[in-house]
Amino acid sequence: MKVFTAGFGTECNTFSPLYLGLEAFREAYFYGPGQHPRRLTEVSAPLFVLRERRDRLGWTVAEGSYIFALPGGRVGKVTYELLRDRLLGELQAALPVDFVALSLHGAMAAVGYDDCEGDILDRARALVGADVPIGIEIDPHANLSVAMVDAADIIIAMKEYPHTDFLERGEELIDLLEKMVRGTIAPVMAVHDCRTIGRFHTFREPMRAFVDGLAHRERTTPKLLSISLIHGFPWADVQDMGAKVLAITDGDADLAQQIAAVVGREVHAIRRQAYTPAVPIETALCAAMQCDPGPVVIADVSDNPGGGAAGDSTTLLRAVLESGASACLGPLWDPMAVRIASAAGVGAHITLRLGGKAAATSDAPLDAEGLVTAVSEEAWQSWAGTRTSLGAAVAFSVGEVRIIVSSVRDQAYSPDLFTNLGVDPSECRLVVVKSAQHFMNGFKSLSPRIILAGGGGALETDFRKIAYRNIERPMWPLDDDTT
Fold first, then answer.
1. What is the pTM of this model?
2. 104-122 confidence digits (pLDDT tens)
3. Is 175 exposed, middle or buried (0-12, 13-18, 19+ CB in 10 A)?
4. The 3-state secondary structure of 285-315, one letter per residue
5. % helix, strand, coil for the chain, step of 5
6. How many CB atoms lie within 10 A of CB 442?
7. Strands (DSSP E) along 85-158, which ranges?
8. Quick check: 123 and 105 in contact, CB under 8 A?
9. Which run of H or of E encompasses 208?
């Protein structure tokens, strides 16, 4: 068995001013053929599984590049075409192959390209021909397009949000591709458009039972190979944005469409319960201060780098400082502040200009006097058994508030974001994280009291307030007639 694998992607907020160039990929995740480390990461599950098959079964694995950037705005046209053509060139050089397994995101948009994944898959299909299976693993926040479904044979989306099941979904993808090559299955895909914009957090009801129900259907329904809820990425103003159900069956197109429609109706039934807009910052702080003593976690949802925001908004930080509560906050993205504080060194009392640099949604910079308590040349935090970099970082204390300032723009995943720089969040009244959802697994053991705060950032969580221009209508909750 000879296979080709590669990965390329990012999640693009088309409202964000943070355009992504080549450096955004180089700073985050840039591995050429054969250069990817042995460790598993969220975006490399197909490669990780295929290396195991190579070692155990003697498969030949032609490795292409695995290149990803942290979420931001649109990818620059030149950067996208350069990296796309690099991947396609590696695929062409590897031919002939028995199948192609790609790790994509599903919500990458570039200047001049609203559907990057559809573009990549269409070109890959042209290279390999009609008979070579192509399969992809995607983020559930994909904007599933007709072009993607037409060009791919198998599309597997992570079921969990936070996306902790990336390895299981990678194994599922490779298993199905192998069976397809051996002729034991003939996958067909069907899509049901739910006409819904939503935020489907799977750690709580009703989504927990919904996702468990998907897995039960897969185990008990004859001919059903896989079923996924594609959430869509709400901050992408592109035609294909929105929640969709994707069903894959073994040779039965009618059954695939029937199952997709049934599950789609289930999404309609629970979407109001699953939809949870964040509360205003003032409300969030008031609620936190009324809780019993002990840490309360407040998520700065509107400034979540995981959704393409800058992560340098000072709005919630100002409110926390004014509250007088003991708190820690992070990661605040500000490479220049890191550079200045690092030069001053641990123990230095300095005035530091923090945040407020990327755009109007970042608010104004905050000038604060404080103490540099820790400096790291390479800070990191844990995420689902992996390790993510924060780059050079500092801990900076302003009164009772400890701030983790990073040079790499990323969201909060785990309390070791703080403890690695000498800050104990369990000692703080408020623990403020720049994230919307992926922090949940890491921080729920610190405190069961979690509040989602909105305002002061690029991610509006009340979708009715977003000025969409390109999505198809009707769409709930913007419109009511979405059966």
1. 0.91
2. 999 999 999 999 999 999 9
3. middle
4. HHHHHCCCCCCEEEEEHHHCHHHCCCCCCCH
5. 35, 25, 40
6. 22
7. 99-103, 134-138, 154-157
8. no
9. helix 207-220
